[in-house]
């Protein structure tokens, strides 16, 4: 069970969104309303709202309040591609190395993102993607065991997690968080880079019709990866 007070508030909000009770653009209770409802300080309520805003779940508007974010317009910023096809489209050789594939108990942060409870069992994979035998991306992915029960039966040396998930739980929505980071020592070793080399990290949360399917953390050397997108704005 979620034990921190702000974690309980975050899970409450996510449950309302995932169930459809709070659709896109719905106004979320204020800090004062949440503080009163959950018998906590206004600071605790503010922290819950701020963290969900940073995760792209909510949007805060000065003077107007806090609203459920528009997930589909967020996902339009980046086209989600199968990295194998992306590499092959450049005429290069693609290869994948499955490093980890197991069932794990999730911590509070991942539980909130996957709309489950801390300590619940989910599936976890690590796959190293290579282009012309050079590592270009480490993919760490948490997958809902309820929505994708046969995930552990796959061979991700032969098929990418994205390709498999697209076939069994077609993507309907996604959010992205992008940041420049210095990766941990273990990630640097897997990517075969110096620990001072900057990396690009994308945290991607994907939905199917049944709910949140996966949370993927994609880390690439900064000199081997770039992001692009095409945005369509409707009047």
Automatic annotation (TrEMBL):
Pfam families (alphabetical) = GntR, UTRA
List the molecular function annotations (GO) for this entry: DNA binding; DNA-binding transcription factor activity
**For this UniProt entry, which residues form the secretion signal?**
none
Listed GO biological process terms: L-histidine metabolic process; negative regulation of DNA-templated transcription
UniProt KW keywords: DNA-binding, Transcription, Transcription regulation
| HTH gntR-type domain residues | 3-71
SUPFAM superfamilies from the entry? Answer: Chorismate lyase-like, Winged helix' DNA-binding domain
Tell me yes or no: is Glycosyltransferase among this UniProt entry's keywords. Answer: no
User: Which superkingdom is the protein from?
Assistant: Bacteria
Q: Which PANTHER family match?
A: MANNOSYL-D-GLYCERATE TRANSPORT/METABOLISM SYSTEM REPRESSOR MNGR-RELATED, TRANSCRIPTIONAL REGULATOR PHNF-RELATED
Q: What is this protein called?
A: Histidine utilization repressor
Species of origin: Thalassotalea euphylliae
Q: What is the lineage of its organism?
A: Bacteria, Pseudomonadati, Pseudomonadota, Gammaproteobacteria, Alteromonadales
């Amino acid at each position: 069970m979620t034990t921190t007070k702000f974690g309980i508030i975050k899970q409450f909000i996510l449950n309302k969104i995932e169930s459809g009770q709070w659709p896109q653009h719905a106004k979320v209770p204020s800090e004062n309303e949440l503080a009163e409802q959950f018998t906590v300080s206004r600071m605790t309520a503010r922290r819950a709202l701020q963290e969900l805003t940073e995760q792209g779940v909510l949007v805060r508007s000065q003077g107007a309040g806090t609203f459920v974010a528009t997930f589909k317009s967020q996902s339009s910023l980046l086209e989600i591609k199968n990295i194998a096809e992306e590499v092959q489209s450049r005429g290069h050789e693609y290869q994948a190395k499955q490093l980890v594939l197991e069932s794990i108990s999730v911590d509070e942060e991942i539980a909130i993102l996957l709309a489950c409870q801390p300590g619940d069992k989910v599936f976890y994979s690590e796959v190293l993607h290579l282009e012309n035998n050079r590592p270009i991306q480490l993919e760490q992915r948490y997958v809902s065991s309820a929505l994708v029960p046969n995930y552990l039966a796959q061979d991700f040396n032969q098929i990418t997690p994205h390709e498999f998930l697209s076939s069994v739980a077609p993507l309907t929505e996604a959010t992205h968080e992008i940041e420049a980071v210095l990766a941990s020592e273990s990630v640097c070793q897997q990517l075969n880079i110096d620990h001072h080399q900057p990396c690009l990290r994308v945290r991607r949360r994907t939905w199917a019709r049944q709910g949140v399917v996966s949370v993927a953390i994609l880390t690439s050397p900064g000199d081997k990866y770039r992001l692009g997108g095409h945005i369509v704005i409707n009047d």
